[in-house]
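Per reviewer request, we include the raw input and output of the structure prediction for the construct analysed in the revised manuscript.
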Amino acid sequence: MTARQSVRLIRSLPWREPEAVAEALARTFGEDGLVWLDGDGSALGRTTLLGANPVELVRCGGLPGETGALDPFEQLAQLAGSGHTWLGWLAYEAAAWVEPASHWKRPALPLLWAARFDPLIRIDQQEKRLWLEGDNPERLEAMARCLLRADPVANGPLALTPKTAPASIPLDSWRWHTERGRFAEQVTMIQALIASGDLFQANLTACCEAPWPGAGLADVLTLYGKLRRHCPAPFSGLMIAKAGAQPEAILSASPERFLQVSADGAVETRPIKGTRPRHREAGTDAAAAAALVSSSKDRAENVMIVDLLRNDLGRVCQPGSIQVPQLVGLESYAQVHHLTSVVQGQLRQGLGAIDLLRACWPGGSITGAPKLRACQRLAALEPVPRGPYCGSFFRLEADGSFDSSILIRSVMVQGGHLRAHAGGGIVADSDPLAEAEEMGWKLRPLLDALA
């Protein structure tokens, strides 16, 4: 289960705020790409990883049967045995390699993008520790010198000055691919499928786009700085796959862990189902949280996905090891209240993180039940591929451990445009107009942050 590991050089440095480290890294090393697996400093989000100018890169695009297409899960299995740490994303449509079918749409961004950095920066936000890990002493010392020159504290906006991007993205510049009325109609269509016994639940999504004349790394980093300050989350992050004149990047403020695997095979997943917006007035905010906790519809959604994930984990975990230490618990973040459950298990001997990933892909909380039928029905309703949205940011460590998010609350940068998605679980007693309204206010914190 444990991968072959190379000997690593370690260099501890004085404390720097993650934003200051990212800025210094971007200035000196980031023009060939940058990864910032971020966190909010909480118990779940205490660890930050940063890397720039990857020394190795893996990109997989294409669906089964297309010329030159590679199975992203096989590529990840090879990386898992490399003895190195890899950071990257896996797109929702990678599911075509798990269950090939005609309904999968090819996204514009890669199905798999994975990078290895030498050195890699690690930050423990709770203990205020910062260190570098690498194999090449010259590169490690060059990065150490760069960070030692950095401003030790960055509490305000990033000092990197955008070149051409506007300071804000006006709310009225976003164009919806699925308008609110159409979304409500689609909810009704899913309810008809539920009534006929075709589905139990489906996670319907919609997206909007806005033009964005960003001109490179500085602009993307400034955009992410706005997002992380307005919407802090434990599984947030930034991945810049292309940092030229028209960057390719994903910015995320996700509160949801998908899969975590320890080096000894202990597994955890934390599905979210049930959301309410936060309010500034304490009484109103408490009432919103209470309404969420007591909502039979939201609790039913959550329990249904817990059952689905227990089944997924059961394909690769030891019999009797799967347990649910938290069922439908309230978790509150800067912008929203959520209902979160925790499912744990122990991998069977001889299996690793990529076996688990393949067994559980795509995540149950962003598909529905039965999962594959829900994916098929959703593909017929949603006008564009999801791409990295509803996929994962991941870190695959040299010791075989693994952690990943569900890429919700995320913005994609590609081809001079920004694209943001939102969605929610549809069940038999969903209110179509209320679901359409929820879709809007789930996205509003992200759009407000960029505005």
